[in-house]
Amino acid sequence: MLGSYIKELRIQKNLSLTELAERAGVSKSYLSTIERDLQKNPSIQFLEKIASVLDTTVESIVQSEPSMSKDQELPNLDNEWISIVKEAMESGIDKKDFKEFLDYQRWRRNKE
């Protein structure tokens, strides 16, 4: 999900949709449709502008997998985490739902 990944990067950089659009010189409404995966085929020029502001590469965005450095690798998950993840998957929660939950939690913490 290219749009979801762009949104995730934007949030990690603490940028609003408006800020990213202005810094990249792209339309806020178009960026919004990309992030919501309503538009799924942005131009290379658009991706280059976005990637530049987000300090990443077009390749990384297209692959929708951030390149992780050693200090960013996931720690070993203990049995409780594994159990929670399995329970979530079995109850029908998908990755998108889980990411939305995390986004909401970040938003809520920033409001407090």
TrEMBL record:
Keywords: DNA-binding. SUPFAM superfamilies: lambda repressor-like DNA-binding domains (SSF47413), SinR repressor dimerisation domain-like (SSF47406). Residues 68-106 form the Sin domain. One of its GO terms (molecular function) is DNA binding. Residues 6-61 form the HTH cro/C1-type domain. GO terms for cellular component: cytosol. InterPro entries: Cro/C1-type_HTH, Lambda_DNA-bd_dom_sf, SinR/SinI_dimer_dom, SinR/SinI_dimer_dom_sf, TransReg_Diox_bact_type. This is Transcriptional regulator. It comes from Scopulibacillus darangshiensis.
